[in-house]
C-alpha cells in the first residue's frame, strides 16, 4: 500500500511502536474476560473489533458475567467512552479538507494513544504535511496489536482451568488503570467515594450499584474541586500505557 | 445472558462508541463539548475504575470481608502498591497473580 510507505505514516508508526507491547496483556485480558463472561469466541472477537476500546470492553465483559441489566452494561461502557468526544473535538480542526471516506474510518480508529501522539505532533509542527497519514500511522498498528492480542486471549482463555484464578487479572487490570487516574485530591475523592459506594451498594440488583458509585464518585470529585480549585487542570487520560 | 442479547449489547456499545468518536470530527471543529461535561469527565476513570476494583477485592461470596484471610484483598493491595510505585502494567499483573497463587497455596 502506497499509504503505508508515506514518510508521515512511518513517522506515526515509529512514534507508536514503544506503546504497543504494553497493550498486549490488556488485550489478552479483554479476550479472556469476554470468554469468562460466557461469550462465544466469535462474539468475543467481534467485541474487540466493534467496540475497539479497552476499558469499555473489560467493563462490559465484567458486567455481562454477573447479572446486569443490558441497558446498564451499554450505558456504563458509553460513559467510559465519553472521553472520546473530547479527543474528537480537539483533533477535528486537523482533519479539515478530508471527506467522510477518510473521516469515518479515522474516527473509528480514535484511541487515547493515537490522539495523544498525533495532537503532540500537530502542536509541535502545525504546518506538517499529510497529518492524516501520521494519525493513521499511529492508529493502524494500535488496531492490529489490540485485535491480535484479544484473539490470543480468546484462544488462551478457553483452555485455562479455573484453579489458575485468571479472572483475578481483570480487577488487577482495572487497578492498573485506576492508579494513574488519581492525580490530585479531587480525583482521589472521586476514587475513594466511587469505591466505597460500590462496595456498599453491591447488593443492588442488575449491578445498578456501579452506576450509583460512578455518579457519587464524579459528584465527590466535582465537590472537592469546587472547594479547592487546583492550579492546573490536567488533560484527561484514561490509560497508563496501552489499552483501547 | 443469551447469545443474542450479548450480540445486541456489543452492537449497541459499538455504534454508540463510534458516534462519540465521530461527533466533533464530523462537525470539523465547528463546536466543542460544553465546559461542565469536560469538568465531570475528568473524574470518570477514577470513579468507575475504583467502583470496579474495590468490590472485586472486598466482596467475597456476597459479604464484605476486610480480614487478613481475604487473599484477593491482600494480593490486590500489594498490586496497587506496585502499580503506584512503578506504573508497570506487566509487573503489576505478575506481582498480583503471584501473590494470589502463593496465598491460595500457603495461606
Automatic annotation (TrEMBL), chain A:
It comes from the Bacteria. It is found in: Cell membrane. Keywords: Cell membrane, Membrane, Transmembrane, Transmembrane helix, Transport. The keyword Transmembrane helix applies. It holds the Pfam family AzlC. It is a multi-pass membrane protein. One of its GO terms (biological process) is L-valine transmembrane transport. The chain crosses the membrane at residues 12-35, 41-61, 68-86, 133-156, 162-179, 186-204. It comes from Pseudomonas taeanensis MS-3. GO terms for cellular component: plasma membrane. Its main location: membrane. This is Branched-chain amino acid permease. Belongs to the AzlC family. The keyword Cytoplasm does not apply.
UniProtKB/TrEMBL annotation, chain B:
Keywords: Membrane, Transmembrane, Transmembrane helix. The chain crosses the membrane at residues 6-28, 40-58, 78-103. It holds the Pfam family AzlD. This is Branched-chain amino acid ABC transporter permease.
